[in-house]
Amino acid sequence: MKLGTTFARIRHSLLAMMWRSVVAFWLVALLLISVPGADWAFVVGAGLRGAVRPAVAGLVTGYAAITLVVAAGVGALVAGRPAVLTGLTIVGGLYLMWHGAMTVARPAVPVAGVGGRAFAQGVGVSGLNPKGLLIFLALLPQFTEPSAALPIAVQIGVLGLAFILTCAGFYLIVGSLARTVLRARPAVARAVSRASGVAMVLVGAFLMVERLLSA
């Protein structure tokens, strides 16, 4: 009986350590998410088009795919192959630049939503963003507890879920605010949309140049 109680206490302690890691990771993730970047630019444009929910659903789906890749150990294999990582960065950077250029050419104004297209674009913006993969590879392992009761893959899944839920809540607010604030200002909305497109182009170009210089 005493032995069972001891094991239960150890298990409880290890799980408590794991949840402390989740909270610590969540605070770091919130900081990263709050910094404007490609996701912000995309969500603002989606908000103007009245497609906040499908756009955010697409973003979190892309991050969910990255979480599964990292949890399965595939992400570490990709990170260990510079040529593959460089190719991924180029593809992701070109996609962001293309999407940003299209946004500049056809700036959004507050209209009724276009869900399916926004969802697919959201998956591309997050799932093809090599910066997202690198963040997961660099951050997630640091917040896992090898001695915890949960396997490392499960811990990565839990941490990834915390990131995904935070993304969903934060970007739903950003997109909704963009639409609400700019709904009655079509000229300002077009200017903001163009600025968002330029931001995506710059982010895509920066990722490609940074990777090529470090390759």
Automatic annotation (TrEMBL):
Pfam families: LysE. Coiled coil: none annotated. It comes from the Bacteria. It is a multi-pass membrane protein. It is found in: Cell membrane. The chain crosses the membrane at residues 51-71, 78-98, 152-174, 194-213. Keywords: Cell membrane, Membrane, Transmembrane, Transmembrane helix. This is Lysine transporter LysE. Its main location: membrane. InterPro entries: LeuE-type (IPR001123).
